[in-house]
Design a protein that fits this description.
By secondary structure, the protein is of the alpha/beta class. The chain has helices at 2-6, 12-37, 42-47, 51-59, 71-81, 90-112, 124-141, 143-147, 157-166, 173-196, 202-209, 212-222, 224-227, 251-283, 290-306, 316-324, 331-346, 356-367, 373-382, 384-399, 402-422, 466-477, 498-513, 525-532, 536-539, 549-557; strands spanning 67-68, 313-314, 426-432, 438-440, 446-447, 452-457, 485-489, 517-521, 545-546. The strands form 2 sheets. Strands 3, 4, 5, 6, 7, 8 and 9 form a 7-stranded mixed beta sheet that branches. It has a two-stranded antiparallel sheet with strand order 1-2. The radius of gyration is 30 Å and the shape is elongated.
Amino acid sequence: MFNTLRNYQREWLSADLAAGLVVAILLVPQGIAYAFLAGLPPQAGLYAALLPLFIYAMLGTSPSLAVGPAAIVSLMTLESLQQLSTPGSAEFSQLAAALAVLTGLFLLLFYLIGLGRWTTFISHSVISGFSSAAAIVIIINQSKSLTGMSVPRQESLADTLWYVLQHLEQALPAVMLLSAAAILLLKAWPSLCRMLITHRWKMMSELLGRSGPLVLIVLGITLVPALNLPAEIVGDIPSGLPQLAFPHLNSEQWQSLLPSALLIALIGYLESLSVATAMARRAKTSGLNPNRELLALGIANLGAAVSQAYPVAGGFGRSMVNQAAGARSQLAGLITLAGIILVLVVATSWFTVLPKALLGAIIVVAVIPLINFQDGLHAWRFQKSDGLVWLVTFMAVLATNAELGISLGILLSLVLYLRRSSEPHIAEIGRYKNSDHFRNVQRHQVSTSPQVLMIRVDENLYFANTHYLNEYIIHRLEQTDDIRHVVLVGSAINHIDFNGYEGLLELHQQLQQLNILLHMAEFKGPVMDRLESTDWLERIKPGQVFFTASDALRELGHV
């Protein structure tokens, strides 16, 4: 932020001012809605947009990322805490603030160990399957607000859905009609704005198209009370700024929150980073620093904790609105902050008569784009294991909860990765035509020597796959008695661990018993450095280390 201010250009101010005000207008109803989704009082959603916004503006590296309450993080907060306390209670709010503390500490730990450089350790299939299922969970959880029914807390999502279907006669037609009209308005509003506003005013059309929630809230505040609908309303929202305080819990409560905080930190960071990266590509800008984002989000969550809020992340919808409105720097976030402060100080009473059905509609429309079955289908068509990861994550979130679902998805993706790397692609290779290029004998017509077996393993050598490699080579040797040399081509090996080294020793000993020499070719420098730190080069003599596979075949097989 300070670097931005030093290089700030005056012509940016109008764009930052417009973007900041637009996001502030959008954030007020979203903040209230997401607070209810998290099981917290409405002001918690607004408090989550105070210190986190300021801190991210100071430390963040994305000019457009809008940090604050987010749908998926709100759902994870509810599912993490509802087994420990009653949603809406003072204890529940304390637990939510403590969850933000631990989430922030985990993010700071990730920053210290440089985890920002490892942004792909959770596969896209896991994230997509989780997001799609979480969106469905969020929509079903809004059934109470959308129908006007009294839905008691159930053990599972299926129980909730079954209860709603069994008691549909309790639904209030007026509330359901209001919810349906609100959803239709939110979905149709962008198209209506594009249709009514000419192409000359394309930017205005985009901005007005994003203002659907504001239009809905204004209509809800002004018209719904006049119609005297039997819809549940938001109720009193305390005016003024929150008192800063650190949550007080006992040690057992802190410990019970650790697994949830870890997963919320991971998901919140990945969601924020994916949104920031997408916006950077769209704007064709650079400067996004994944590791610095961990620092900014970590301290932002600590700010949320001391301001009586709950874990925060970068919101997709608000961030895209921020960018579409022309935000050029983090100053837009500070202007949004000023708008939220103004609402908290003088305008919270405006929202007391706002029907919760409209907030439910805002949530539903916000999360519908997260449901993406095409991702799972495309993953299945490309590689069934990736499709399986998507499906298992999706079904596990629906059948259990967000935390267990994504944990199972991550575990399955790691197991499948270990399975693939434990049985790596191994190719017997030969010289292609008269060149120095070597290719798989099963794919190309190549020249080989009956006395030389040349093996290329397309994976690092580590504890999980050395036994597989040795079995492959011994099985191949059993098919002929002519081979006198085995050349291990290491062009695709980037790392070898101690088990890999011991596996090579075992292979060498097995080949010695068969009067066959083991040789090496095209091993990379870092791998050779590891082997040279041992007595490996002495052990394999009279086996040799060749610079290229071509040299090895030419000297050993005269080909």
